[in-house]
Specification:
Strand order of the largest sheet: 1-2
CATH class of the largest domain: Mainly Alpha
CATH topology of the largest domain: Rna Polymerase Sigma Factor, Chain: A
Helix content: 55-70%
CATH architecture of the largest domain: Orthogonal Bundle
Structural class: mainly alpha
Number of helices: 10
Distance between the termini: 52 Å
Strand content: under 5%
Oligomer: single chain
Amino acid sequence: MYTAEENRLINDILNGDVQAFAVLVNRYQRPIYNLMLRMTDNREDATDLTQEVFLKVYANLEHFRPSGRFFPWVYTIGINLARDFLRKRNTALKGAHCFQEDCVEGGHANGPVCLMTQVDACRLPGLLAKLPGDYREALILRFHEGLTMKDVGTALSISTSGAKMRVKRGLQKLRDLLRLKCPADPAETGHDD
């Protein structure tokens, strides 16, 4: 989306233009903060980690490849910092996410039923927190942040096919958790009550 403009800004920053860096920070501060908040479930930690992400971005900007996309590169730095932080604190990820693209095909009269209609949205964060971290991260990047599979792969340092598989497996694990937490559909059990 902003590739040419971002490359110009990056060149300006590398040539000493601090205001150009402010433009990039303003553009990506909110999504990075939201990522950190979802991963830590703590506003202060999210604020501190967001600042740390941009310090690392600034310090490592010369390593950014202009042929790549800037946003996934920043996300990779953010995810790695959050992983390190969580390892140190040994906490679980929490946060509500709507997986609107994921629908379950089934024998329902109305066709596909979105997962969000099967379970109260208040329970989804707890279920998501039970997923292994690599699946959680992939689902957050794909469905909450809206990254393409290619960008999810870039952000997680895996191939595009690896990103697709991680999202698919994460969704399957989430479905399995939903089946454990939700009563069975009467149509599936043969009961009409």
